[in-house]
TrEMBL record:
<dbReference type="InterPro" id="IPR023168">
    <property type="entry name" value="GatB_Yqey_C_2"/>
</dbReference>
<dbReference type="GO" id="GO:0006412">
    <property type="term" value="P:translation"/>
</dbReference>
<dbReference type="GO" id="GO:0050567">
    <property type="term" value="F:glutaminyl-tRNA synthase (glutamine-hydrolyzing) activity"/>
</dbReference>
<keyword id="KW-0547">Nucleotide-binding</keyword>
<dbReference type="InterPro" id="IPR018027">
    <property type="entry name" value="Asn/Gln_amidotransferase"/>
</dbReference>
<dbReference type="GO" id="GO:0005524">
    <property type="term" value="F:ATP binding"/>
</dbReference>
<dbReference type="GO" id="GO:0016740">
    <property type="term" value="F:transferase activity"/>
</dbReference>
<keyword id="KW-0808">Transferase</keyword>
<keyword id="KW-0067">ATP-binding</keyword>
<dbReference type="InterPro" id="IPR006075">
    <property type="entry name" value="Asn/Gln-tRNA_Trfase_suB/E_cat"/>
</dbReference>
<protein>
    <recommendedName>
        <fullName>Aspartyl/glutamyl-tRNA(Asn/Gln) amidotransferase subunit B</fullName>
        <ecNumber>6.3.5.-</ecNumber>
    </recommendedName>
</protein>
<comment type="function">
    <text>Allows the formation of correctly charged Asn-tRNA(Asn) or Gln-tRNA(Gln) through the transamidation of misacylated Asp-tRNA(Asn) or Glu-tRNA(Gln) in organisms which lack either or both of asparaginyl-tRNA or glutaminyl-tRNA synthetases. The reaction takes place in the presence of glutamine and ATP through an activated phospho-Asp-tRNA(Asn) or phospho-Glu-tRNA(Gln).</text>
</comment>
<dbReference type="Pfam" id="PF02934">
    <property type="entry name" value="GatB_N"/>
</dbReference>
<dbReference type="Pfam" id="PF02637">
    <property type="entry name" value="GatB_Yqey"/>
</dbReference>
<dbReference type="InterPro" id="IPR017958">
    <property type="entry name" value="Gln-tRNA_amidoTrfase_suB_CS"/>
</dbReference>
<feature type="domain" description="Asn/Gln amidotransferase">
    <location>
        <begin position="350"/>
        <end position="497"/>
    </location>
</feature>
<comment type="subunit">
    <text>Heterotrimer of A, B and C subunits.</text>
</comment>
Amino acid sequence: MAEKLMKYADAVAKYDPVFGLEVHVELSTNTKLFCPAHIEFGGEPNSQLTPVSLGLPGSLPVVNKTAMDYAVKLGLALHCQINEWSQFARKNYFYPDMPRDYQISQYDKPLNGEGYLDVELDDGSIFRVPIERAHVEDDAGKNTHLGGADGRIEGADHSLVDYNRAGVPLVEIVTKPIEGAGDRAPEVAGAYVRAIRDIVRSLGISHARMEQGNMRADVNVSLHAGPDTPLGTRSETKNVNTFKGIEKTLTYEIRRQAALLESGGEVLQETRHWDESTQTTAGGRVKTDANDYRYFPDPDLVMVHVTKDHIEELKAEMPEMPRERRARLKQEWDFTDRQMQDAVNADAVDLIEETVKAGATAAGARKWWLGEISREANSRGVTLQELPISAQDVADVEQLIAEGKLNDKLAKQTVSGVLAGEGGPAEVVKKHGYQVVSDDGALDAAVDQALKDNPDIVAKLKSGNMKPMGAIIGAVMRATKGQADAKAVNKIVMQRIAQ
């Protein structure tokens, strides 16, 4: 039965939404957090295992130093208090995705304590998200539920478990309750997770491919009457792995909980799951509190000591952060605030930068990535990065235009050919014979014929009315199958009407 929903505008007018995010970021180390098992996405199931990752008796964990260094760098980027001494604990639960029946995590003594992240919203305003901690833990395995209609555990008759992911190092970034966002709560959540994705990629510590599970978020939502009233009961939607999904989860839960409270119902403290196909959340299990996990210090691991000197060494290795980088690039590229924000929203900043490095102008790179190529990505339902066209391809097209070998129409056809898998720009141009007509005789003849066929337009042009010029250029383009140089055509026409 479909759950009752309140209109979003009515929900946020009556209730104040409070939300929290737990973002899980898998670290791109070569080996797992506590053993030398190799990490490779998409490997043969249950092939990347050691006695430690299987939790076999007598096996002992050893901390991966690179993973801890990566975690410190992330803590620095999130303005966290880096604790010199941190401790791993056993988090006990009985799910089939963790073979030893407990997860090695950090609880009351995390590596990274309180911090914050300032995120930029679509209108350029800044919202500060408070962070409670960013602790290190090993990931669980992956369950695949079979026999049901949609791959979820409900309705399945059996499950398969792949333990390759069990033991992969990750950092869980836990926010404090986020208040004051009002009706922009979904936007703030999406911008925050995007900002984390950009940071970890800039640091080079995670691939942050949400579709591969490298990065995912648990979304906590509650409602209360206002800032001076107690927080409401929260729901926790687990493992949402798209930016839009995070935003839509928040929107849906606000509408669902508002309708429930309005009808006199009670919000359950429970885990829920986002269903992309129905664009809804569904109840899972009653939420377990921290004391139910029976945390206690892991007796096989000593406390981790990160010295102040080592923290300073890692701080010195920190690259330029995304916000500072975007500000620099905006100035270098001479983009307006709106142009830069459009590039950010389209996730095209890296692609534009690569295209500029390959020889294109910033304006030209922006035109292609946010124009023809972006429209193609939207029609295919994929990201810009997933399309079969590279920054070098776009720069090559721009070079052909600059050399006068392609006009705008032929350039668009060339890009379409690249996107269709016909090869690079040079191959597409050669295959279709794309070439700007530069022969003076051929252009002269085409212009003369266009003027002869349109005497009324010629009269207007001679009288000083230049508005119909496009009709003449269009006629020449048709005659030359789109291969004429519009600037050259314009020049010849002006010479003719001056005679």
